[in-house]
Design a protein that fits this description.
Residues 2-153 form the Thioredoxin domain. It catalyses: a hydroperoxide + [thioredoxin]-dithiol = an alcohol + [thioredoxin]-disulfide + H2O. The protein has 153 residues and is an alpha/beta fold. It contains five helices and nine strands; from the N terminus they run E-E-E-H-H-E-H-E-H-E-E-E-E-H. It has a single domain, classed as Glutaredoxin. Helix content is 29%, strand content 27%. It is globular and about 40 Å long. The mean pLDDT is 96.
Length: 153
């Protein structure tokens, strides 16, 4: 997992609405990447709606915000339409980005272990380095905390 002050792992992924997003092409502006386990689950829906509701505030602070999961673009498109999401979602169907950021982890639920995405958020400074990392995110209050960190850059 990349640490604070290290360069953020670069990637190019497809984005909802069409096209691709390449992280290095966004240098010069802060970037928020929020990794979440799966589209249309309760916590993931609340988090995505929260970032969508505050997207104008992030943009006013000069930041770009993207949600990332291993869901396909087709699932992302349905998720966006169902909940009127405005935050762009990236599809890491191959899993290379979730692995590069160290969020593809072993999880345990009801005594069963499996691999999955740990809910985590990375704030990348305008120079492409990791400015802040939130691991094992709890959704209530998280969007506001990230927005405060962006404003403090």
């Amino acid at each position: 997992m990349p640490e604070i002050s290290e360069n953020a792992p670069d990637f190019t992924l497809p984005v909802t609405g069409g096209g691709d997003v390449t992280l290095t092409a966004l240098k010069g502006a802060p970037v928020v990447l929020f990794f979440y386990p799966r589209d249309d689950t309760p916590g993931c829906t609340k988090e995505s709606i929260g970032f969508s509701a505050q997207l104008a505030e992030f943009e006013a602070a000069g930041a770009k915000v993207f949600g990332i999961s291993r869901d396909t673009m087709a699932k992302h498109d349905k998720f966006v339409a169902k909940h009127d999401l405005t935050v762009p979602l990236l599809s890491d169907a191959e899993g290379t980005v979730t692995e590069a950021y160290g969020v593809w982890v072993e999880k345990s639920m009801y005594g069963k272990t499996s691999m999955g995405i740990e809910r985590a958020t990375f704030l990348i400074a305008s120079d492409g380095t990791i400015a802040q990392v939130w691991r094992k995110v709890k959704v209530p209050g998280h969007v506001e905390e990230v927005l405060d960190a962006v404003r403090a850059l």
